[in-house]
Amino acid sequence: MFKFNKVFNTHASQAEVFSDIQPLIRSVLDGFNVCIFAYGQTGSGKTYTMSGPGTSKEDWGVNYRALNDLFDISLSRRNAFSYEVGVQMVEIYNEQVRDLLSNDIAQKTLGIWSTSQPNGLVVPDASLHPVKSTLDVLQLMEIGQTNRAVGSTALNERSSRSHSILTVHVRGVDLKNGSTSRGCLHLIDLAGSERVERSEAIGDRLKEAQYINKSLSALGDVIFSLAQKNAHVPYRNSKLTQVLQSSLGGQAKTLMFVQINPDTGSYSETISTLKFAERVSGVELGAARSNKEGKDIKELLEQVSSLKDTISRKDMEIDQLLKNKAKSPGSSIDRNDSRQQIRRLSGTGSSEAECEDNMSDDGCSVAGTEYSVGGASEATAERMQKAPSRIARLFHTKNGQPANSKPKPRESALKPPG
Q1: 16, 8 in Cβ contact below 8 A?
Q2: CA gap 50, 29 in Å, rounded
Q3: Is 415 marked as a binding-site residue?
Q4: What is the pLDDT of residue 4?
Q5: Percentage of residues in the chain with pLDDT exceeding 90?
Q6: Which letter does DSSP use for residue 416 in this model?
Q7: Which of 270, 248, 275 is CA-nearest to residue 193?
Q8: How far apart are CA 200 and CA 389, in angstroms?
Q9: Residue 220 is labelled as binding a ligand
Q10: What is the sign of the dihedral through the CA atoms of 335, 339, 345 and 350?
């Protein structure tokens, strides 16, 4: 016997399914990361659950309803909070990550960043589209579904041949105190697992099936490692598990739909799917944490940004001085020695690399021009207690004196014998 949190029969409506997960989705507006994905054999209804047939509003799947709900709530909170919503949509096809909302679907494959980043930018090079209404989402989703790889097999006339990932980024600002929150919602429609002999796949369909089954097998290995609480979890064995890393092993709220086919010919696949789902339900992810930045944290990050700008300007001045010196006749310079001399003269003290190390040690993750501090409120409080010392290091000072100056000798409290 298998036990699950909820079982929907064949007559359950899309609205009924969504109502059960609605509280989970709404927590995104409060700064939580949420992941919802559908798993099951090909033709079992995963795409129907996540996207729906799209024929009418009543047929909307989880993706459309989630976005519509987020807009409704943000509108009701408009007097207290300001929200910005952006959407990304990618697919993992034959272990290649592609942007489904790009004008050039045949573009180069995209890379995956560390999924531990609080801003949720797992695939940063994928186009991020700001959306203001449900209509904007419908138009983008239509483009994404059109670009998604599908193919016909003996089991499904229109079988998804890739894993589809719709990511919704929500940034909220408290209009009263200026604090910000970042929530991320991953809505994932996995390609269906299939037995090659039953699907009668050949050629490209066979190659696709092999990649699909391999990535789903890697997902199973990750789930098994998490359930066993192993020290090493093989996230890097597939692109799919790399994308899901923050959701499966991080501090996100995660839900899985298990889709099964009632056809008697699918009995073995159904049992396999149910066993996998039972294993997933035994994984403990720990308490979810919200990604919030208080006003004091925001001010500290602004100081970090200002200091990096200062370092950048100093570097430009140094490079220009080096170029001018190189043009002088008969000059022979050592770039590193000259750079250090100029830094001492300009009063910048430590090198840029040392400053970078200081910022890294303080827990500030830098990506381009965007800075983010993650972690729970306790970690935030601890960091703020250390803020004076951090700022001192960033300004290259020690005990109120420049880092490159020597401290005055301390007078002894004991007088020498007369």
Answers
A1: yes
A2: 20
A3: no
A4: 87
A5: 22
A6: P
A7: 270
A8: 66
A9: no
A10: negative
To the question of whether residue 42 is assigned a binding role by annotation, the answer is yes
Structure pTM? 0.65
- Please tell me the distance from the alpha carbon of residue 229 to that of residue 79, in angstroms, as a whole number: 45
Task: Give the tens place of pLDDT for each residue, 127-184.
Answer: 999 999 988 988 998 898 888 866 544 444 445 678 989 999 999 999 998 889 988 8
Q: Provide the CATH topology of domain 14-292.
A: Kinesin (3.40.850)
In the chain, the amino acid numbered 241 is: T
Question: Does residue 273 have a known ligand-binding role?
Answer: no
Query: Rounded CA gap, 102 and 106, in Å?
Result: 9
- One-letter amino acid at 24 equals L
Domain extent listing, the chain: 14-292, 294-402
The pLDDT of residue 61 = 92
The answer to whether 43 is annotated as binding is yes
Q: Does 294 carry a binding-site annotation? A: no
144, burial (CB in 10 Å: exposed 0-12, middle 13-18, buried 19+): buried
Is 46 annotated as ligand-binding?
Answer: yes
Buried b vs exposed e over 293-318: b needs ≥16 C-beta within 10 Å?
Answer: bbeebeebbeebeebbeebeebeeeb
Give me the amino acid identity at 313: R
Q: Is 331 annotated as a binding residue?
A: no
Place of tokens 């790889």: 149
The single residue listed with the structure tokens 């910022």 is 359
Q: Which residues contact 45 (CB under 8 A, 6 or more apart)?
A: 259
Do β-strands 159-160 and 180-189 pair in parallel, antiparallel, or remain unpaired? unpaired
pLDDT at residue 250, rounded to an integer? 67
Rounded Cα gap, residues 241 and 245, in angstroms: 6
